[in-house]
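Re: beginner question about structure tokens

> Can someone show what the tokenized structure looks like for a real chain? I only ever see the sequence side.

Sure, here's an example I had lying around. Input first:
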Amino acid sequence: MKRGASTLLGLALFLLVSSWAFSQDASFQPCPDVKPDTLGCEPVAWSQLQEPVPLPEPDSAEPGTAPAPSPDQQSAQSASSQVQPDTPKQTIKGIIVRQGEKFVLKAGDNTTYQLDDQNKARQYRDKQVSVVGVLDPDSNTLHIETIEQAS
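And the corresponding structure tokens:
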């Protein structure tokens, strides 16, 4: 009884696999217009406004050059390195005051700047100072280069 059931099960499995194999069309090509010099199918139907840009050849890249960082990598950099090198330095006068847990530069009645180096700012608490640095307008943070007590 067991032998007959296993033979029947084997025969059913054989028929299932063979029917699947013979049902496959051997002439099926997913990309009928593939040329020998292409890597695969054209995955995008390009509009008239778009221009496809080919990838550079692997052998044309100069050895030892790193690819440009992606936007994700750029955002992971520290705040002080995000300031553009062509951004001009500014000298701003005001008073270093404590605002919550941080020291800020109060440069007028309604103007305050966040300071990136709290250790430098701490020693000038409640004093009139002149700060030289680069202002990041997006975060209103002054990247301190020097702080001097104003005379």
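Each token stands for a local structural state, so reading them left to right follows the chain. Residues 122 and 142 are 15 Å apart (CA to CA).
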